[in-house]
Structures are given as C-alpha cells and as structure tokens.
Design brief:
about 280 residues; alpha/beta; Rossmann fold; nine-stranded mixed sheet
Length: about 280
C-alpha cells in the first residue's frame, strides 16, 4: 500500500503524464538533455559497446524517454538488448507503452508498475546498466533503500547512473524565485519544492549522495554537475513554460552549440559539480 508521500508523487505525475514530453520543446531542457546524452555516451555507452548482450533497468522510467535514447545509442551495435522499465505512475507508463508499441519493440522493452524501493520481484545480479533519470532518487521516500535495491540487481561490473536534485542549486533557485520559505527546509531537512504543486523531494550535496552510493556498496563513484553555467528559472519548471532570457540566448543555434561544447568540456571536473543544476551520479558494482 503506497504511503502518503508515494501517493502525492503518483498524483503529481499522473496529471502531467500526457504532456510530460512537451519538455522537449523547451530550449533549456533541450540543452540539458543534449549535454546528458553526450555524457552518457562517454561514461556509460563506451563501457558496454563491445558486449554481445545487455540487460538494462530503467528505475523510474516515466514516459520511457531515456530508455528509448539508450536504445537508439545501442541498437546498431549488434547487441542483444533487454529493457525493464519501472515506474509507480501508470499514466506515465501508458505513455511509454504507446512509444514502445509504435516502434515495434515490445519484445525488447517491458514496463512494470513498481516502486523501486522494493525490487524483490526481480532477479539479483541480472542487469548490466541501471538508470534513474531525472530526480527519481529525489522523489522516492527512502533513497538509501532504492540504492540498495538497485545494487542487488546489478551484475558485478554493472553501473547505476542517477540524477538527483543539487542542494546548493536548491538554495540558489529558491532565492532566485523568491521562495524564501523553502530555505529552512533545504538547510535542516535537505528537502525542496521548486513549485507549490509538486511534492517535497530530497536534495543532496555532491559528497552526500556519493556517500549514500558507497554505503550501498558502489565503487568508483563519480559525481558530475550539469549544466554548470546556465540555469533554469521558474518558467522552466513548468512543462509548457519557458524563461524568456534562456530562450533568447539559446534560440541562436551557434550560441546553443557553443554553450553545449563548453558545458561538456568542463562538466567532468568534480571541483565544479556543486555548481550543477542537477547532479549525475555514476557508481559501479
């Protein structure tokens, strides 16, 4: 039986599901996604490009956006692929199922209504790659439990990449958007609401989330802040919104590409991870 927080998360995303992918139209999030794609290719895809078979767990898959992106990266590499997409919101999985069916890959991708804090129905030491994009570990009730569950499901040598809310950026965003009442909650509980309609989520300092990964058993934990030099405003938190300043900067393709290039060049410097709008965490079993 879902607890009250879980119910709030389901309610929040069930309302957003049919329009969730409209985020692709927002230039800020398009930049963020293009940057993440480059990072994923560099830090994950290269590690597994010579495999003959890959089992991939999307823990908090939503509408399946990132499973489909990984599929696009891997489908031409003569690798036998299997994806399990898990989410607690049926409406989000309905969107994923539509895409999977449209692409004719129902034999490769399966979706399941599931809370990633309990993966006991799934075999241990089975997956090569697990992902939780965006902020899945921030939305779950107990991130340390979810981390432990995912760890058990990975093969030795498997990797888990997640994106979480950055505590430092949470301070900045709350001040920028005059949400001053959030500051004490961030400071004392490491929790944040970016808008009034969303549930409270966990936010992490780079070393804090790294420690949680290590406590779950992960090794070689890497923290990557991104984007580090351009940030969203309150309008960018809405599925159909867009900050005018960001739009005016990023609508020029040359400028967009230049910012993307700089962000990619600098993002692997862990000294600046705390600047990131979000934190990408990659750990190895």
């Amino acid at each position: 039986m879902p607890d009250s927080h879980c119910k709030d998360v389901i309610k929040y995303f069930s309302k957003k599901a049919t329009k969730y992918d409209l985020v692709d139209r927002q230039l800020y999030w398009r930049l963020s996604d293009e940057l993440l794609k480059k990072i994923v290719q560099e830090k994950i895809i290269k590690l597994f490009s010579l495999q003959k078979e890959l089992n991939i767990l999307d823990a908090g898959a939503g509408t399946g956006r990132w499973s489909l992106i990984l599929y696009d990266f891997l489908k031409e590499k003569n690798i036998k692929l299997h994806f399990d997409l898990l989410d607690i919101t049926q409406e989000m999985l309905n969107e994923a199922n539509e895409k999977i069916k449209k692409l004719g890959i129902t034999n490769i991708m399966k979706t399941y209504l599931k809370n990633i804090e309990d993966l006991s129905d799934y075999g241990d030491n089975f997956y090569d790659i697990a992902i939780s994009f965006y902020n899945v570990l921030s939305f779950v009730g107990k991130p340390e439990v979810a981390l432990s569950e995912v760890f058990k499901k990975l093969k030795m040598g498997g990797v888990y990449a997640s994106i979480v809310a950055n505590k430092y950026h949470s301070y900045f965003f709350s001040i920028l958007t005059n949400r001053i009442t959030e500051l004490d909650k961030i400071k004392n509980q490491s929790r944040i609401r970016f808008t009034d309609e969303m549930p409270y989520i966990h936010c992490f300092m780079p070393q804090g989330i790294k420690k949680l990964y290590e406590q779950a058993g992960f090794k070689e934990v890497t923290i990557i802040g991104f984007p580090n030099f351009i940030y969203p405003n309150i309008e960018d938190t809405k599925i159909e919104g867009q900050n005018k300043q960001s739009k005016n900067i990023l609508k020029n393709e040359e400028v967009f590409d230049k910012i993307l290039e700089i962000e990619f060049q600098e993002c692997f410097n862990e000294d600046i991870a705390g600047r990131g709008n979000t934190l990408l965490v990659i750990g190895k079993k």
